[in-house]
């Protein structure tokens, strides 16, 4: 009799989990199929997704610590709190954590030999992060949350990953040419630009007004449009990295 009542609960939870996972998988397939020059192996893609999941755990810890410090000095009701929370703590904790696992698991990979690979890896890390985050939200708040996040948060993380991947690919290409200063500059941008976009996304989403909702819709529409155009352009113009063997240290 106990299992008779338990079964609907288990089925409902599985439906929620599937609702949380499917949008992320759809976007992963979309980005993977756009890799026209040399598709990546399932092994490295799996490393990226699991890295994204671990980055969600790390970001959660960093945000908890950051919020504790912030609330010690600034009231949660103030605008300054929201600005620092979203643009600094959330933005850099989440995008910094993604970048940490992205670089750790792909920088020296032999498969990382094309410009567009950086976009693929960063987006898969971002969607691994979003997948784990979405499962947590959906199990707590239900199916309606899955529907909203399917068209906002999950594509949002993918967009952040696109910007990270573009600069990450440029950083790797310049490293192969022995241009270390330029490579470091692009590595910094690979974290800073997505973090600021992420912060703007969260800050605008927090505006509790009708005008704020319209601004948010306009923001995500522009973000999605620009990101998909960048993916198409990067995929179309993909090329193998050049290696300057005189300057590059193997």
What can you see in these coordinates?
The chain has helices at residues 2-33, 42-71, 79-106, 117-141, 143-150, 153-176, 180-205, 210-236. The chain is mainly α. The radius of gyration is 19 Å and the shape is globular.
Descriptive tags:
single chain; 250 residues; mainly alpha; 80% helix; disordered N terminus
Overall form: globular
Compressed to H and E, one letter per element, the order equals: HHHHHHHH
Report, as a whole number of angstroms, the end-to-end distance. Answer: 65 Å
Oligomer: single chain
Number of strands: 0
Provide the β-strand percentage band.
under 5%
What's a concise summary of this model?
By secondary structure, the chain is mostly helical.
Question: Could you outline the blueprint of secondary structure elements for this entry?
Answer:
Layout: H1 2-33, H2 42-71, H3 79-106, H4 117-141, H5 143-150, H6 153-176, H7 180-205, H8 210-236
Helix pairs in contact: 1-4, 1-5, 2-3, 2-4, 3-4, 3-7, 4-5, 4-6, 6-7, 6-8
């Amino acid at each position: 009799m106990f299992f008779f009542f338990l079964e609907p609960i288990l089925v409902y939870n599985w439906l929620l989990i599937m609702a949380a996972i499917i949008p992320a998988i759809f976007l992963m397939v979309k980005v993977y199929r756009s890799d026209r020059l040399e598709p990546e192996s399932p092994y490295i893609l799996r490393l990226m997704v699991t890295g994204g999941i671990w980055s969600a755990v790390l970001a959660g810890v960093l945000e908890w610590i950051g919020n504790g410090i912030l609330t010690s000095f600034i009231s949660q009701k103030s605008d300054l709190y929201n600005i620092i929370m979203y643009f600094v703590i959330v933005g850099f904790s989440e995008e910094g954590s993604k970048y940490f696992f992205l670089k750790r698991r792909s920088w020296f990979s032999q498969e990382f030999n094309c410009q567009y690979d950086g976009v693929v890896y960063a987006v898969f890390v971002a969607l691994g992060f979003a997948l784990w985050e979405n499962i947590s939200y959906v199990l707590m708040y239900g199916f309606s949350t899955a529907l909203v996040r399917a068209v906002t948060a999950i594509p949002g993380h993918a967009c952040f990953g696109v910007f990270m991947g573009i600069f990450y690919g440029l950083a790797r290409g310049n490293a192969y040419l022995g241009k270390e200063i330029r490579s470091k500059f692009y590595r910094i941008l690979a974290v800073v630009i997505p973090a600021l976009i992420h912060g703007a996304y969260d800050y605008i989403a927090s505006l509790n007004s009708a005008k704020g909702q319209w601004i948010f819709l306009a923001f995500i529409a522009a973000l999605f449009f620009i990101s998909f155009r960048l993916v198409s352009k990067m995929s179309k113009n993909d090329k193998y990295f050049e290696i300057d063997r005189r300057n590059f240290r193997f």
